[in-house]
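Recap quiz, item 2
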Amino acid sequence: QVQLQESGPGLVKPSQTLSLTCTVSGGSISSRDYYWSWIRQHPGKGLEWIGYIFYSGSSYYNPSLKSRVTMSVDTSKNQISLMLRSVTAADTAVYYCAREDLEGWFDPWGQGTLVTVSS
Amino acid sequence: DIQMTQSPSSLSASVGDRVTITCRASQSITSYLHWYQQKPGKAPKLLIYTASTLQSGVPSRFSGSGSGTDFTLTISSLQPEDFATYFCQQSHSTPQTFGQGTRVEIK
């Protein structure tokens, strides 16, 4: 059974870079059947898709965040990573990684990690 | 971006009630519509994908229908563990977008 686990700092200062890692267990990140996505949820709010990356390294980002986002994949470690630059308080959210089927649904999800942007 | 609008935003219901949640897309998304359940402090859980296909392990009291722009999630007989927030999501066009959520509360 595939499981995902996010990790990274829970507190980031404004203007700095948010960096998170998602470790996949129970399955290979090199599968051609899935994308690997990042999704965030602002406190008490809805869900926002940040983008996805394929095992080959090809990626697609939400245009609303594209200028600040970089995703990467490390197949040797079965991990994907997210970098979000120049963060502000508006980037405070729970960040999830999830496996995305090629037809676009997300399953499973990691447990999520709260990142707070504050000085 | 395709806008997803859920209604109602919240509802109160009793155990055993039939509950229906609606999701409307701002343009046709054919059947690329998926439903999730989220409980407080937990990640969303996939219930239904491509409008009407029940995810493995999800109870059969959950069902989905619709195509084009209008979709419905139905819980045939609400159980105590079903009190949660439900989200729809479209994957017809990137960026994938979600509805704002429907909170199902105990009456």
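Chain A touches chain B through 21 residues (CB under 8 Å).
Chain A has a mean pLDDT of 97.
End of item.
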